[in-house]
Target: Low-specificity L-threonine aldolase
Amino acid sequence: MIDLRSDTVTRPSAAMLQAMMAAETGDDVYRDDPTVNALEAEAARLSGKEAALFFPTGTQANLVALLSHCERGDEYIVGQQAHNYKYEAGGAAVLGSIQPQPILAAEDGTLPLDLVAAAIKPDDIHFARTRLLSLENTHHGKVLPLDYLARAYAFSRERKLALHIDGARIFNAVVAQNVTLEAIARYCDTLTICLSKGLGTPVGSLLCGDKAYIERARRWRKMAGGGMRQAGILAAAGLYALQHNVARLKEDHDNAAWLGQQLQQAGVEVVDQQTNMLFVRVPAEQVQALQSWFAQRDVLLSVGPVTRIVTHLDVDRHALEQLVAHWKAFLQR
Model:
């Protein structure tokens, strides 16, 4: 089976499973799981933040991040297509009474600062209090430029806003820009990191920030049901991923670029590719037939008018060659 629906479908390698089985554990709610503590310390070190907190899911990490920045009746400014606005069941509004103020992102994935400025509410009892600017890096596979992040951070200081980065795939940005995580994280107050996408762990995300913020987040995590016990088994996978699976993300980027070139040569229109996400256009009349064609050939792909293809560690170049062959055969049928 060739699965290109997302990088969330990755499975732990034999070496990662071995690290999980050998993990030293304790009770993380009591803060005495040494492997969780080591993972959090490593995430804090890499990001240049004072502390980090381990979560079972990225959605919970994003929710707690917002709950720890905003109070009931506060507002966060966010992209219209951002994950923590559109794809997390409205959790901030439903569970935190936090109002989202979505704005359209630019073509490069950034939120134009003039639009952000226009969305900030006056200090008036009629309005929600604007407290937070939330960015996403990468955003649908697009890497936010470092100079934009520097300007956004300076802007947030001027406007007295906190700045959070949903960094579910932030290590893809790190590898694409050939920088350290700290070089990106210096331009935000807090960030999340997902371990279970391209980094290949079965479970887990991290929230990084200063110590006082992480202490607030720890309370919210407990309230949201994220207090885990012998979680070192899961944290060991995260440590393995940070040590072994970051640099290899370049293979995914290269594979996505190669695939885009091959499909373009075959007559498929390529819309965008920067990291491990390739977007191609499929004529409306081909969508259903192409979906069935791939399914019959053990290829899992979410085919639509704009189809997202996500490369990852469980799909090698040979598998992509098979995909190209299947696509060519479909076009020539």
Observations:
- The mean pLDDT is 97.
- Residues 77 and 101 are 5 Å apart (CA to CA).
